[in-house]
Amino acid sequence: MKLSSFADLLASRGLELLPGSSAVPVELLVRLPDRTIAHFTARGTTLRLRLFAEHALANVVIAPECGCADHHPQVGPSRLVVGAHAVPLAERVIDGELTFGWQHHEAGLLRLPDAATHFFTLLENLTRSAAARTTPARALVSVA
């Protein structure tokens, strides 16, 4: 699965794949309908999904390799990232060592279709728990 196909899948669910996402190793920046940002990574033996406020995104300008204005412009391309000091609103993690018996860097070897399954599972768990926190509890006051 290519990132463009995954972007179409996300769009069909009302989600937007943002620039800065990569298929190898899998790192996804996804804008949710409420404008929060889901940041999913597959590294080492860990699959992690963090939710951030939209203002947590930053553009980082990548300097040209040689730094020589004769060959390259002074300013390189930019990349969308989650800011270094951004604090997640919520987080869910799958410990691959405990869950799957991974021992080294198996999460980093996942292909996008396999990682996407975990992304959707973590996103569902995260949004379900967030909805439960915002839904007021009902209490029976009296019976007539």
Describe the structure.
- This protein is α+β, with helices and mostly antiparallel strands.
- 26% of the residues lie in helices and 28% in strands.
- The protein contains 3 helices and 8 strands, in the order αββββββββαα.
- The termini are far apart.
- The strands form 2 sheets. Strands 1, 2, 3, 4, 5 and 8 form a 6-stranded antiparallel β-sheet that branches. A two-stranded antiparallel sheet has the order 6-7.
Compile the SSE list and pairings:
Elements: H1 3-12, E1 16-17, E2 22-23, E3 26-31, E4 37-43, E5 46-52, E6 57-61, E7 78-82, E8 90-95, H2 96-100, H3 112-134
Antiparallel strand pairs: 1-3, 2-3, 3-4, 4-5, 5-8, 6-7
Give unreliable regions as ranges.
Answer: none
Instruction: Write down the Rg.
Output: 19 Å
Strand content: 25-35%
**Major pleated sheet:** 6 strands, antiparallel
- Overall, the morphology is globular
- Summed up, the helix count is 3
Total number of beta strands: 8
Helix content range of the residues, please?
A: 25-40%
